[in-house]
Amino acid sequence: MRIFKIGLLLLSITMFGQEDEKVLKKIYNTSLSDGMSYAWLDHLSNKIGSRLSGSVGAQKAVEYTQSELVKLGLDRVWLQPVMVPKWVRGEKETAYFESAGKRYELNICALGGSVATPQEGLRGQVIEVQGIQEMKSLEADQIRGKIVFFNRAMEETLIQTFQAYGGCVDQRYAGAMEAGRLGALGVIVRSPNLRLDDFPHTGSMTYGDLPVDQRIPSAAISTNDAEMLSAYLKKDKGLQLGFHQQCIQMEDVESYNVIGEITGSEYPNEFIIVGGHLDSWDLGDGSHDDGAGVVQSMEVLRLLSMQESKPKRSIRVVLFMNEENGLRGGKKYAEEAKMNNENHVMALESDAGGFTPRGFSFDCSDEEFAQVKSWEPLFKPYLIHYFEKGGSGADIGPLKSEGMVLAGLRPDSQRYFDYHHAANDTFDAVNKRELELGAATMTSLIYLYDKYGTAKKMTLPVKN
Amino acid sequence: MRIFKIGLLLLSITMFGQEDEKVLKKIYNTSLSDGMSYAWLDHLSNKIGSRLSGSVGAQKAVEYTQSELVKLGLDRVWLQPVMVPKWVRGEKETAYFESAGKRYELNICALGGSVATPQEGLRGQVIEVQGIQEMKSLEADQIRGKIVFFNRAMEETLIQTFQAYGGCVDQRYAGAMEAGRLGALGVIVRSPNLRLDDFPHTGSMTYGDLPVDQRIPSAAISTNDAEMLSAYLKKDKGLQLGFHQQCIQMEDVESYNVIGEITGSEYPNEFIIVGGHLDSWDLGDGSHDDGAGVVQSMEVLRLLSMQESKPKRSIRVVLFMNEENGLRGGKKYAEEAKMNNENHVMALESDAGGFTPRGFSFDCSDEEFAQVKSWEPLFKPYLIHYFEKGGSGADIGPLKSEGMVLAGLRPDSQRYFDYHHAANDTFDAVNKRELELGAATMTSLIYLYDKYGTAKKMTLPVKN
To answer: What percent of chain B is modeled with pLDDT above 70?
Structure first.
């Protein structure tokens, strides 16, 4: 059946002025021709490197970004103390399997938060499952004493790769907890990566409230190795897999969120925040996750400082600590904001990589969403087309309150999981222009929210 | 002054059916989960390599793509002979400059079509200019006997990088011709690359009808080296630059456009074509330029072959020879189409890299453009937002006639000039998913044009 659809009559109200077009042009031009984000990322990635919570790198990153924010001449720059978990990977992990007398090495890494294997390593038969549900459907003796191999791949037909990630990350996060409950020996997870390559991808996992004696080691192997292991298992169900990791969960240590503020000239008690997370996993240097978000957020305040008039509302950059394995920084910031009765009206996070920005996703009311949709035409010259309702960012999530606008930058996501939490998440994987376009896109949104306020408390335009 | 703009009342007519949504979904799913484009590109790039017109690689690419099209079981596959220029780079070029007794090596490559330097190389004083216009404004003796260094950079504030390329490519294409006329010794051009790196980028140049004795050697140096040379010239106007290249323009040789066709079931005499160019420059393996466009175009016919019903119009894939240094393939195809009175209604080219597709640009009438704009909503789930009037592709340009629709795939362009015509345009720079998304996007557009026809001769929907 062929049908013709006749679209709706659409009344579009665009609430912005020609002056705004000029301001956005200047913001993009400055970011692309005289930006700081790439140089900052170079330092963060190449001079400091990985920044796992509680590590020396994380501490150096706190000091470096604090000192760079001070140089910008903001009204206030400070550190917000927060206790964070400290997990240490220890010596490089090893793994192999043996089939028909031959030994095959595997590219492996411990999952963040996992316990170690015994000193001599762990060895056993493997049971492959496509997820937690399939594992639970098996007989007890199919799991007990075995190494459970979670091999559900990311769904490649999904256009937005974060959806594909969401569809399989549960096996990484909770696989060991559930398998431990069933008496498994250990857990091996296929790395959540859409590409076939040799990088194992780490990431957080939990044991929940599982008794300590049921906590089993869990690790990720590369997608190529997951394919190989699965192929060998089809021929040899009895093959033996061994792995060795010496990671340790230590006592919590003190760390910091790094915060900088331009105090609002008209509504200093209305807060707009922009941020990313300062911590990273320990395998690469965390350039995409989330060095990019950190330097883009810093650039937002720098670019706003360069505007002719000071922001009306108080704009804060918040560089959150411990997004990766605890979210302690995000929780702490929200807790103190509440305690101090701070009125946060809008928050934006960049934590999806430093790729070409496509737009934003918004967690807000319909009224608020209508306002931001009205700004779409302003962004079109910069090829920013994506304005949709959806999630925002993990760190700003705890701030959520009625009437507030939470937003997440949405860069192109096709290559993100090639690098995510792996040793190849390094500076050379970030393109300067793509990073700078993201910073300019974020700055433009914050500029508009500062100028007009959120829809709920919109600043009515006055002739002047 | 702040103003509020009230938008227009907009009547949008969407001319497509729910069936189309299902077809597009299937096209994208198949391309992403069971596509051939990446495997074809792997062969073209890694087994064959570079494909400069008249080279062994170009001939192998003709044979390979022909045989792959035959395997698809198309109605017709044939080679269209075309005479092409044959230019050979010869041994690796060298260059240096000397200042204050020190020697600095430069990363250099001859421009395609350039003459060689004398056997012993060429050496002289350098005059830096920002373009042809500036050169022409100088006194004759400032140019005569000198090496002209064209150092105009791509404009980094332009969002669409092809515009930035368009703004400086004249110095590469015509710089040597104009400088030769003024008695210069040679020409060095800054590579058109938005990034600072060490890769020299080749590309076509012309001497026009300049007498042979005025034809001077021209070459490109990397952006890092252009910056270095310019900095040294500021301190030492008398510095000496030398370069050596042994390229040769040979006699034209016979080559081929590779063409495959699915003959239309209802309107076999209406032709829709999709293509890219089979030749590439010789420094990398031409994966982005234009291996990507070649395999995506082949994939369009494969994906259309897999549809339930045969296309109504005749769909041709045309793999053009010699886009890079002559456009002979494009001209030949158009010439024969005209001679045979073939009615070409629509043509699509992919020649802007294998990056995430953003949409299309259309060279067509307002009436035709209104039709394709009505299809936009169908593409939104695939994050295809860009439908604008503009250029299409060099190879399909000669086909242009009134009433015809010419279109170009528009992928994300931020990284394209990092690789364009340089040694790093290799297979590893192409992401599988991005390539596949492009192929699916192209297939979807061709599917719609086949089903509905162009606006001028739209197939009226019938109830069945």
So the answer is: 95
- Chain A residue with CA closest to B429: the answer is A429
Q: Which amino acid, residue B10?
A: L
Q: Residue A12 and residue B7: Cβ atoms within 8 Å?
A: yes
Q: Is A28 on the interface with B (CB under 8 A)?
A: yes
pLDDT of B13 reads 52
Would strands B240-244 and B218-221 be described as parallel, antiparallel, or unpaired? unpaired
From B190's Cα to the closest Cα of chain A, the distance in A is 18
Which residues in chain A are classed under CATH 3.50.30.30?
90-246
Q: How confident is the model at residue B7 (pLDDT cuts 50, 70, 90)?
A: very low
pLDDT in tens, A380-434: 999 999 999 999 999 999 999 998 999 999 999 999 999 999 999 999 999 999 9
Find out whether B28 and B440 touch, Cβ atoms under 8 Å. Answer: yes
Residues 157-196 of B with CB under 8 A from A: 157, 159-161, 194-195
CB-based contact (8 Å) between A461 and chain B? yes
Closest C-alpha among A404, A402, A377, A408 to residue A390: A408
Is A460 part of the contact surface with chain B (CB cutoff 8 Å)? Answer: no
Can you identify the CATH homologous superfamily of domain B18-87+251-457? Zn peptidases (3.40.630.10)
Task: Write down the catalytic residue from B128, B178, B270, B323.
Answer: B323
- pLDDT reported for residue B217: 98
The residue written with tokens 């400069």 in the block is: B52
Dump pLDDT digits (tens) for A240-283.
Answer: 999 999 999 999 999 999 999 999 999 999 999 999 999 999 99
Would you name the residues of A annotated as active-site residues?
Answer: 323
Q: Which DSSP category does A200 fall into?
A: -
| Distance separating alpha carbons of residues B210 and B225, to the nearest angstrom | 29
8 Å CB contact of A159 and B2: no
Is residue B151 helix, strand or coil?
Answer: coil
Chain A residue with the nearest C-alpha to that of B161: A433
Fold that domain A90-246 belongs to in CATH = Glucose Oxidase; domain 1 (3.50.30)
Active site residue B178: no
Average pLDDT, chain A: 95
* pLDDT tens by residue, A63-87: 999 999 999 999 999 999 999 999 9
Q: Which of B110, B74, B68 is nearest to B310 (CA)?
A: B74
Name the residue among B224, B192, B246 with its Cα closest to residue B107: B224
- For chain A, where do the domains classified as CATH 3.40.630.10 start and end? 18-85+252-457
Q: Is the peptide bond before A198 cis (omega within 30 degrees of 0)?
A: no
- Which residues of B are less than 8 Å from A4 in CB distance? 13-17, 461
Buried b (16+ CB within 10 A) or exposed e, A273-304: bbbbbbbbbbbbbbbbbbbbbbbbbbbbbbbb
Domain spanning A18-85+252-457, CATH class: alpha beta
Q: Where in chain B is the domain with CATH 3.40.630.10?
A: 18-87+251-457
For the record, the structure tokens of A408 come out as 């997440």
| Amino acid symbol at A135 | M
